[in-house]
Amino acid sequence: MRSEDVLAPGIPADPAALAGAQPRAAETWLRIVQVHDQITHRVDSALHREHDLSLTGFEALRRIAEAPGERATMGEVAEALGLSRAGVTSTVGRLVDQGLVVRERRPGDRRLLHARLTEAGRERVRAAAVLHDDLVARLLILLGDEAPVVTDALARVSAATRIRR
Hints:
HTH_MarR-typ, Arc Repressor Mutant, subunit A, 11% strand, three-stranded antiparallel β-sheet, Transcriptional regulator, MarR family, DNA-binding transcription factor activity, single chain, mainly alpha
């Protein structure tokens, strides 16, 4: 009989052999995808219901609102949201149709198309941000004291996966 069997019968010598002690990459990935999908669905539904905005539309409005002069190029919005330029062009088109954003070219640089927030867009993003931020905070409070650790770990993964140009 081995000494570890006598001292701790039935307990593996390698803690990684315990179920759940060391999550496999596939398990971690599944949890990230599930949490993202569930939070996205819940927040998207609430934004549609309360503010007639999709989550993507809200995020685009927020990025434009935070840009200097409340104006951003399609490329800047696409990069901030992690979307294609075509996807952002479509999203911004819906925001234009709602009167929340206008498309314009800057004098002196006719190549780049900018999205600029309107007064209605400013009011809508301000109101929707309260709902968005409160709902996200209420869902993520479940991370408890581990929130800084999870945030730091996800930031490292995000930084490592950014496309270098």
